[in-house]
Each structure stands twice: as C-alpha cells, then as structure tokens.
Amino acid sequence: MDAVNEKSAKNMHNKELGAKGEKKARRYLFLHGWKIIAKNYKTPFGEIDIIARKKDVLAFIEVKTRLSDIFGLPSEAVDERRKRRYIMGANYFLANKNADLTIRFDIIEIFRGQLNHIENAFF
Hints:
Low-confidence stretches: none
Number of helices: 2
Order of helices and strands: HEEEHEE
CATH class: Alpha Beta
CATH architecture: 3-Layer(aba) Sandwich
C-alpha cells in the first residue's frame, strides 16, 4: 500500500472510531436523562460534537475517543485553541436565543472502550 492510500485508510479508521465514540456518548447521555439538541453542529468556528440539555443545563460536549495513550489521554487533545473554538461555536448557537440556562462545556473521553464524562471541563 502506498503512503497516500495508507494515510487515507488511517483517516477513515479515525473517522469511524470517532463516529462510534460519539454514538456511545449520545447513548450514555440519553440513558442519564439528557436530551440531545444537536449532533455534529457546524459553526463558522468548527463543529460541536453534541449539544445536550438536562433540566436547566445546556452542555456543549466534545467527544474524544482513543484506543491508545501514546499521544496522551483523549481529554488532553482538547487544547486551548479547541476550547476557544467551542466557546465561539456556543456563542454562535446561542445568538438570538433567549436561553435562561446554565451553559457548560463538557468532554466525554472514551479510552479503550471506557467512557469518562468530564463535566465543566473548561469555560
């Protein structure tokens, strides 16, 4: 397999892994009383994996899935740049909405099949 096809195959594998992780995260949220408002919500600042509501809390959730910790834990991949983009994306989503809700930024990391919901991961 040449380098281009190898990279393409790796990207496809990562997308499939990410999609499976997001599906697992949505199921977890649903089972814990959250209502999924949007998934893969596109903004000019990037995509928000999941927007979910539970009672008076609206959470913007980044999902990170990893099989190995060679590059660190999944949540460690959410750097300052990504946090800023999530916050700008949330502001974009909330524009022109009268939302009297507590806004929160969570990370759901899935590492080797185990799910860890990190509430208030950043702000």
